Each structure stands twice: as structure tokens, then as C-alpha cells.
Amino acid sequence: MPNVPHRSGFVTLVGRPNVGKSTLLNRLLGQKVAITSHRPQTTRNRIPGVVTRPGAQIVFVDTPGIHKARRALNQHMVDVATGALWDTDAVALLVEAGVGPELQVGVAETVNDLLGHLRGLDKPVYLVINKIDRLPRPQLLPIIDAYQQLFDFAEILPVSALKGEGVAHLLDVLAAALPEGPALYPEDALTDLTERFIAAELVREKLFRQLGQEVPYSVAVTIEAWRDLSSSGRVEIDAIIHVERDSQKGIVIGKGGQMLKQIGVAARKDLERLLDAQVHLSLFVRVEKAWTRTPGSLRKLGYESS
């Protein structure tokens, strides 16, 4: 539009695990870039997503959930999330629209700690109350009030990332908060993540969804080989699933290799949609002793705080 400045910049999504940051990012993009599961602590790295609209380009940065870190991997995740607060133009703090059995409202200790970090920022902070589809609207009011008493938010935005409710308004508000400037990415860009990174994440997502209890938190995925056979419209991918113990290796493979086969079939379907090509995916399981507790192993498997 004439005489209206173009705006561009970064908005960091932060919050506790499992509040819906990755689901919101995918909803904003209209396409899956960040993996999701019902388990907390699924996201381990910064996941950027680019939304281009008339007059603005917003680069959203999904981050790992803030939680109490007990292992080297968990500390890496928290460092990634808190580090992303400084290199951004605005912050969207996501919380859940949840209440207790007696309609009591509380602010989690980790969120209180995070608010302490946010008070030191010279950036607008928006409170995004997610999952509003799961409770009656009047019950939102005490949640809003509880947070208003703790922090001077630029605005409070109730949304449902799952249903899409309130997301268009959220985009309008955050676009207006960005500084004037040209687009940072090409108009058709969705992310600057490599296809290899996304492929490894998609395999890891299936591990989180298929495996029980603690095993998913002890797995990492790396891509060992990528063969783009463009003449035949085929991509061949060799991926390594890293676990910490021999017993976990047996669980991932499953009886007669059935679990590994299920994981591979599910991941291949997503990869074919991502790459728009026929995909041959080979999965291998390797034991990397205590890798979640060893900084050297974290770096070897690609977990390095920036």
C-alpha cells in the first residue's frame, strides 16, 4: 500500500514445554515445519518460520520449552530458549488456558522465572494464551488477571493454535510491532532450515509418537547419507537413530523389526510430502552411551547452543 512502511523482524516464541509453540508456528505458516507430539520437550533447537504478507515479513522462532534442566541435553535446550530472547524484536510468551478442578488459577514457577528474564528486555512482550478451545470464555478472565498482575505485557492475545481461532489477529498485532525494514527472506521462503535437518526431525517426531515413556528423550537422529536421484524423481536417505543403552536399541527396533518399520513408514510419508519425490528411507539404530549427559556427544549429534 502507498505511504505505508514495510515492516520486518523476528518474534521469539517462548514458554513451558507442551504449551503449543510448535503447533502455533505450523498454524502461522500454513505448513508443517516444526515437529509436534503430545510429549513435552519435543523441540530441541531454534526452529525459524517465515510469514510473508502484504507490508510485512515476520520471522517466528520456535524454541524449546523452559524447564528445570538436569542433564546436559536439557541445559542445552534451556540455553537455546533463553538465548533467543536477546536476538529478537518482540517476544510472544505462550501459556495454556488451563484451570484446576476448582477453577483456581496459578502461574507456574518456571514461567515466573522466565518473567524475570523478560523484565530485563527492552522489547515488547506479548502474552499468548493458547488452547482457549478447551474452556468456556468466562474462565479466561481470571487467567488474564493473574498474568496482568505479574507483568506489563504489550498485549494479551487469546488463541487456539489447534483450531486457528485468534491467529489472524495475533499476526496483525505482531506485524505492527516490528521495525520498518525490507523483507529478510525471499517471498516464498518458509524457513532457512535445511532439508536434512527437517528430515532428521521428522524421523524423531515419529519416535516420540511411537515409543513409550522415557525412551524418546534418549534418542537423537542424524542423516548419514542423502542421495538425490533427480533423474528418477527419487531421494534415498540413510538416517541413524542414536540411543543411550542397548535395551533402548531393542525397544526402537521392536520384535522382528516391527517398531522400526512402523517408524520408517510414517516418516517416509511426511518426507515425500516435504520433498515432493519418492523417498527410500533406511533407518539404523546405534548406541551412543549416555549421550544426553555428555557435552562432547551433544556437539557430535548437532546440539550446540548458538
Summarize it:
The protein has 306 residues and is of the alpha/beta class. Helix content is 33%, strand content 23%.
Element order: H for helix, E for strand: EHEEHEHEHEHHEEHHEH
Query: What is the CATH architecture term of the largest domain?
Result: 3-Layer(aba) Sandwich
The backbone outline, from C-alpha atoms, is globular
Q: What gyration radius follows from the Cα positions, in whole Å?
A: 20 Å
**Proportion of residues in helical segments:** 25-40%
Tally of distinct domains: 2
- How much beta, percentage-wise? 15-25%
Strand order of the largest sheet: 2-3-1-4-5-6
Mean pLDDT: 91
Number of DSSP helical runs: 9
Largest sheet: 6 strands, mixed
CATH topology name of the largest domain, in short, is Rossmann fold
Terminal Cα separation, in Å?
Answer: 37 Å
Give a verbal description of the structure.
It is built from nine helices and nine strands. With 306 residues, the protein is α/β, with parallel strands linked by helices. Helix 6 packs antiparallel against helix 8 (258-275). The strands form two sheets. It has a six-stranded mixed β-sheet, with helices on both faces. It has a three-stranded mixed β-sheet with strand order 7-8-9. The protein has helices spanning 21-29, 72-83, 109-119, 140-148, 167-177, 195-210, 246-253, 258-275, 295-300; strands at residues 7-15, 47-53, 56-62, 90-96, 125-130, 155-158, 220-229, 234-243, 278-287. The mean pLDDT is 91. The radius of gyration is 20 Å and the shape is globular. Strand 7 and strand 8 form a beta hairpin. It folds into two domains: 7-177, Rossmann fold; 195-300, 2-Layer Sandwich (GMP Synthetase, Chain A, domain 3).
